[in-house]
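Forum > Structural Biology > Help requests

Title: Can anyone predict the 3D structure of PRELI/MSF1 domain-containing protein?

Hi all, first post here. I have the sequence for PRELI/MSF1 domain-containing protein but no way to get a structure on my laptop. I'd be grateful if someone could post the structure tokens.
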Amino acid sequence: MTKYYESETVYNYSWEQVTQGFWNRYPNPFSSHVLSEDTVSREVRNGKLHSKRLLTKTNHVPKWGERFFKAKSVNIVEESVVDPNERTLVTYTRNIGFNKIMSVVEKVVYKSLPDQPGKTIAIRSAWIDSSVYGFGTAIRAFGLERFKKNCAKTVSGFNYVLQHMFPNNPVALAAAAAAAASQASKAQKLREAAKHASDHMKAQAEHLVQNLSVKG
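Reply #1:
Sure, ran it for you. Structure tokens for PRELI/MSF1 domain-containing protein below:
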């Protein structure tokens, strides 16, 4: 049975900035698994920008999977449509080859958040399947977990690119400041909890010593 995965990511950048950054995602410190990218075609149709790109990524697999996956890399086709009127960027990604062993189809919709100006949401959907008899369930489970890990790298890498392209973005700076304040607050609470626990243990120890002294 095909595995389905869906997630949402909010970027603290406007739709225009996210769309600009999309074409400059690679390389970044989190994309070592992306070996190359090439633009196959790009054209404007009915006011929308249609693009097709070919990416090559590494294909590391566990020992048990080496009997199925011999190649060290896999080719990925990425098709995208930018609609400036609707302010959406929709991408469709699928692997070429090894489809019977494992196929991964991904769709991502980037659009503005109307109730949060200056922010963009990415709605990601993925379908992972395998036709290998007797091993399909294991391969689909492996594919799903690897896809989730790669998603985390993708988000981190994209944020890295956006931060460097738009270092003075006020929404992103405000979000970073809020995150730092939250971390500082958590650290302070941990220190206070540790001190409280230490004082409590110290008081118990002193009480125990006093009781022993009285009995002696």
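The two ends are 73 Å apart (CA to CA). Residues 129 and 140 are 6 Å apart (CA to CA).
Shout if anything looks off.
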